[in-house]
Design a protein that fits this description.
- By secondary structure, the protein is mainly α.
- It has 13 helices and no strands.
- The longest helix is centred in the middle third of the chain and has 29 residues.
- The protein is globular.
Length: 258
């Protein structure tokens, strides 16, 4: 309990708006220092992308909510990447076996945190379905559903759908941006990690806006060539997210890693 109070009361580091670009470069450095670990997790992201594509073809009305599920699973899949970056920062040799075991010490806390995010995901899916149902009398034809959905005649639907998605995506981002690496690194409880994550966003609103936008644009671009970009950019984002956490949350001795 004392450790929790100390964690909640600690002063978080303030970072400049340009800090996400430094995190991004640090992520690229870790990619080249641990290529085999990165390739394994990049392959997992690639498979997730194709699973999402198959789901889109069979359930068009759930496309943004399913995309949310992709974004929701991403940080948990990145646990191994966080562990790898932590080892590299400590001057240790990373390994795939070590990365795959990263979730074990905090399995219970991570499961609880995932359950909370899953509730948000289900609310997002329901809200998206309601917007979809109010906008269309029938499900778009399977031949080219995306073209039909993005038709300029459906501008009201596009604005409402993206607006709902932005609200839920923002909440999920704020709750998890530093929470999951913090749970792995410090073994804190889920509530402490989530509150710290929200505080990190409020302490550094501009940097977090840039970081969230960078993640969004990167994922979109990585998905375009048949999800092949995720093989490389997925791991880079995972490594960079670790450096974002270390830049904002002071270490146990109170000195932040920039």
């Amino acid at each position: 309990a004392a450790a929790t109070r100390n964690t909640l009361g600690m002063k978080l580091n303030s970072v400049p708006m340009t800090a996400p670009f430094a995190w991004w470069m640090a992520g690229w450095r870790d990619l080249f220092r641990a290529p085999w670990v990165a390739l394994f997790f990049g392959g997992c992201f690639f498979l997730m992308g194709h699973i999402l594509l198959q789901a889109f073809e069979s359930a068009t009305e759930y496309v943004l909510a399913l995309s949310a599920g992709f974004l929701l699973m991403g940080p948990f899949m990145c646990l191994g990447l966080y562990r790898t970056s932590k080892s590299l920062q400590a001057g240790q040799a990373p390994s795939l076996a070590q990365a795959l075991d990263a979730w074990l010490p905090s399995a219970g806390t991570l499961a609880l945190f995932a359950a909370v995010l899953l509730v948000l995901e289900m609310l997002w899916a329901r809200a998206s379905l309601i917007v979809f149902a109010l906008s269309f009398d029938v499900v778009p034809e399977e031949t080219n559903p995306l073209k039909q959905l993005l038709n300029p005649e459906n501008l009201d639907f596009i604005v409402a759908y993206v607006g709902v998605g932005a609200v839920f995506a923002g909440i999920i981002f704020m709750a998890s941006v530093v929470a999951i690496p913090m749970i792995m690194d410090r073994k804190v409880d889920a509530i402490t990690a989530a509150l710290t994550s929200f505080r990190a966003c409020f302490t550094n609103p501009l940097a977090m806006w840039v970081w969230g936008g960078t993640i969004t644009v990167t994922i979109v671009l990585a998905m375009l060539p048949y999800f092949l970009g995720l093989v490389v950019l997925g791991p880079v984002m995972g490594f960079a997210s670790w450096h974002a956490y270390k830049a904002i949350v002071p270490d146990d001795q109170g000195a932040g890693a920039r």
